[in-house]
Amino acid sequence: DSGVTQTPKHLITATGQRVTLRCSPRSGDLSVYWYQQSLDQGLQFLIQYYNGEERAKGNILERFSAQQFPDLHSELNLSSLELGDSALYFCASSVSTGNTIYFGEGSWLTVV
Amino acid sequence: GESVGLHLPTLSVQEGDNSIINCAYSNSASDYFIWYKQESGKGPQFIIDIRSNMDKRQGQRVTVLLNKTVKHLSLQIAATQPGDSAVYFCAEEKAAGNKLTFGGGTRVLVKP
Fold first, then answer.
1. Digit-coded pLDDT (tens) for B31-64
2. Residue A101 to residue B92: CA distance in whole angstroms
């Protein structure tokens, strides 16, 4: 157990809908990262937050957004969902930049 | 759990033999490298890391080798066990920020 908690573990939703994935980082970690893992794209970095502020952005679609709250938990919002958004979404956390990143177990999103 | 990354190179290893997993990284400016293990249905699990000022680092049954000249990283697993069956990813990180870029992954299958 990495200490990073993600909910929900599985989610099935229809195209056009919006979902929110939640992440609680390891105790003491200030940085939160979101990754997408799909069959044909591997692990893709989406976005990073550090202590509530956006730190780095990867290949995150405009339909997706994230935030990190004062209690350091984070949410990834996915809207106008398409079939191609079906993937595993991982949250990860680290103490700060330059430290080991630990991953949660992921949220399986299936868009039908 | 479902599998991701179905089209991965596969390394078949006899139980008890040593495994060597190779990874070519892309950015000569990267100064931090990590190996992750991902079992089916789970999140990537940290195995071992190495910084660019080192050539070799050893952990429990694992050794990471870094060749900066040819931008090559390898993970050696000694006395491979059935529990080592998983997909292994290398990841690189540049000095600024903590955005990890992952390689495509290698599937290791341990034969009894």
1. 889 999 999 888 999 999 999 999 999 999 999 9
2. 12
The total of other beta-carbon atoms located within 10 Å of residue B40's CB is 11
CA distance B46 to B38: 9
DSSP B70-95: TTEEEEEESS--GGG-EEEEEEEEES
| Closest chain B C-alpha to A18 CA, distance in angstroms | 23
Residue B83 has pLDDT above 80, yes or no: yes
* Residues 6 or more apart in contact with residue A27 via CB below 8 angstroms: A3
In angstroms, the CA B22 to CA B70 distance is 12
| Whether A43 and B98 lie within 8 Å, measured CB to CB | no
**Does A46 contact chain B (CB < 8 Å)?**
no
Which chain A residue lies closest to B49 (C-alpha atoms)? A100
- Answer whether residue B6 shows pLDDT above 80: no
Nearest CB to A103 within list B2, B7, B44: B44
Q: What's the residue count for chain B?
A: 112
